[in-house]
Amino acid sequence: MDEALNNAINNSLGRVFPLSGYKSNLIIKELLPKEEQKIKIFRSALILLKIWAKNNSIYGNQFGFLSGTSMLIMLTKIYLLYPNTCSVLVIIDRFYLTFLTWNWPRPFFIGTIDDSLIHSWRIDTELFSREITFLNKQGIEEDWVDVDKRDKIYIKMEKEKLKENEKENIERLEKHSKLIMPILTPAYPQQSSAFNVNYSTMKIIKQTIIEGLRGLRQIRNSHLNEILKQWIKGVDFVDKYDHFVTIICVGIDKNIGEDFCNFVKNRIRVELVLSLEEYPKLEYSHISPNKSKKGKCEKRLIAGKKFKKFWEDNWCKQWIVGLNMPELFNYSNKEKISLNYYFLKFIKKIKGKYIKHRKIERTNVAIHLRYTDIHEAKKFWGDN
After folding, report:
1. Mapping DSSP to helix (H, G, I), strand (E, B) and coil, where does residue 369 land?
2. Strands 315-324 and 284-295
3. Fold identical between 2-113+182-233 and 237-381?
4. Helices 2-31 and 68-81, interaxial angle, to 10°?
5. Contact in structure between 40 and 217 (CB atoms under 8 Å)
6. Over the stretch 134-169, which tens digit does the pLDDT of each residue have?
7. Are 286 and 57 in contact (CB under 8 A)?
């Protein structure tokens, strides 16, 4: 009975929340300037910001980065604070400064917050959701059934290390479970359009905005078109890091592969934090929201006996993730063994959930995390 009621409520909310997005756009439209020149400046600034964010790998709500809704709300608030701004670059400059000087996690919103209305955003409900996501220990345990005997040795060794560092890991996850960057939609029911931002992605967004502001100031001071072009172009993702991991999901055919890879995509953001960033030498991970490949897998990616079943009619998808590691990190055999434990943990947790939910044969799908050095990343993932 309770489950049926919860399903009915969730289905109703699923219809209400998109309507809230539509109503929010109407409210924002009413607040925006009516003069043709001012609205042109506003729209140009929003488009330019989106292009800049995409080109700098910080645009993509699903992976915990900025969304179009969040940027629209922030830019609208900035217009309301500075209605006489008459330059695209000036309004973007103020966007950067507002983001960097805002007292996060103080909620960023237009109008007022009415937390007395049912289903509207509230601090305690967001905190509860974040704690469930990052601190709930009742998830599916990693399933080590199909792990090689050799791998089981370093799994045991790494688990013993984790017991020693349990306190530090809990403190790390607590940072993600706190309020990070609530940006509230103006219409009922209010939602946080930046709920997916976590401690790691917030750090990446802030650093990128600092670099963006620095570049913008150069443009405003020099008026050189070349600097403007470079600022818009941004930094290619593979030039941001020295170490990477390629996430590969594969299904035995296209239908299974697409379903499985969509399932994986929806869980990458959280599992990077829960599993991969547990590795002590990894400060944070950064998935590229814009770089992915799909289709038939290259054999180099699924070599080995365990992938033999996938050599013919497979369908796979790949993502590239930057790893922010110490400069002197050396991918030696010792570190390879250590890092592979966290790769396996990531794999087993996602695959285990998929098999449980879909009731599918475990041999019909696979995930592979593959360490990728900077040379391989440039070759297969670079812009050129």
Report:
1. strand
2. antiparallel
3. no
4. 40
5. no
6. 997 544 455 544 555 556 655 666 666 666 678 888
7. yes
Residue that has been written with the tokens 């070599």 in this structure: 303
Joined together, the tokens standing for residue 64 give: 């915990």
State the amino acid at position 232 in one-letter form.
I
Q: CA-to-CA distance for 288 and 241, rounded, in angstroms?
A: 11
Q: Burial letters for 298-318: b for 16+ Cβ neighbours within 10 Å, e otherwise?
A: eeebbeeeebeebeeebbbbb
Contact 42, 91 (CB under 8 A): yes
How does pLDDT run across 23-40, given as a tens digit for each residue?
A: 888 899 898 888 899 999
**Residue position matching structure tokens 């943990």:** 345
Which CATH architecture does the domain made up of 237-381 adopt?
Answer: 2-Layer Sandwich (3.30)
Query: Among 162, 107, 166, 133, which residue's Cα sits nearest to residue 269?
Result: 133
**Cα–Cα distance measured from residue 242 to residue 329, given in angstroms and rounded to the nearest whole number:** 9
Euclidean distance between CA atoms 284 and 273, whole angstroms: 8
Average pLDDT over residues 281-309: 83
Return the amino acid letter for 97.
Answer: L
Q: Answer whether residue 384 shows pLDDT above 50.
A: no
Joined tokens for residue 345: 């943990």
Q: What does the domain layout of the chain look like in residue ranges?
A: 2-113+182-233, 237-381
List the one residue out of 98, 92, 97, 78 whose CA is nearest residue 47: 92
The fraction of the chain above a pLDDT of 70, given in percent, is 82
Farthest-apart Cα atoms in the chain, separation:
70
Q: Is 1 exposed, middle or buried (0-12, 13-18, 19+ CB in 10 A)?
A: exposed
What is the C-alpha to C-alpha distance for residues 24 and 16, in angstroms, rounded to an integer? 12
Q: Looking at domain 2-113+182-233, does it have CATH number 3.40.50.970?
A: no
Q: What is the CA radius of gyration of the chain?
A: 23
Identify whether the C-beta of residue 184 lies closer than 8 Å to the C-beta of residue 107: yes
At 373, which helix (H) or strand (E)?
strand 365-373
